[in-house]
Amino acid sequence: MPSPSCPEDRIPELSAQDDFEEIACLLTTCAFAWDIERALEFALFRTYAIPSISGLLARTGEFERRAEKRYDDTELLLSAPMENGLDSAFGRAAIGRINEMHDCYRIANDDMLYVLGSFVLEPIRWLDRFGRRPMTAHEKVAWTNYYRGLGARMGIAEIPDDLAGFAAMSAAYERQHMRFAPSNRAVGKATLDLLLGFYLPRWLFGLGRPVALSLMDAPLLDAMGFAPPPGWLRRGVIGAMRLRAHALRLLPRRRRPRLISARPRRGYPQGYEIAGLGVWPRARGRARDAAKG
């Protein structure tokens, strides 16, 4: 489990090869807690801009019926190994549940690899643009090693050896596969509206959407079928985010970790079990329920 305090200053003393799990946890729960969570949300949008990925997600029907549960389950399953360790009891259970779900579908290794790469690259890019500081070279190696370890436990093949390899793989994949499909827009809009709902009443979504879209690049907007926001708004949003970064440098460091797993969730008022997270194909879900009953 993470320390009850936030010893961010320990990161330079830790090994990026041997202590990458601890470094990744400190980055996620202490050093850049809000920023990495936002960056991973935008990483999800990049994966939704791939028709083979968005098409599978759309066919499950989860984004139409239970968008909040789908989002919560993804966060909780990914936070368990991050906050507790890849080979901890919680980490193994969450990764096993992820693998169990993936085994129910035909998912190309290249698609899995691209999603993994998005989780590596987008937080680094976000912090370069909007963080109180960028990740150090030491932190980038540890961050990459954490996701290499996660990918290996998920059975993903041909995982790049380093950050440069992930960047090259992701760029080549996007050139070949990132293009518009109706499922991209459907899944992306459902997720965007869900995220806006965490901060705004629904009647303000029309104002909030262009602000969020201002943080997306043109190829992503095109592939999602989203109209680009006005240039003045984009410049204003990016400027405001950079002012925030300057303000953060003047504020005290976080004293306690911000744990995703500990956050109250409307869908799980009594808590949750890892085995109950995620989705089942309908036929398999019926068989599972019959076995229970």
Automatic annotation (TrEMBL):
Protein name stated in the entry: Uncharacterized protein
GO terms assigned for molecular function: oxidoreductase activity
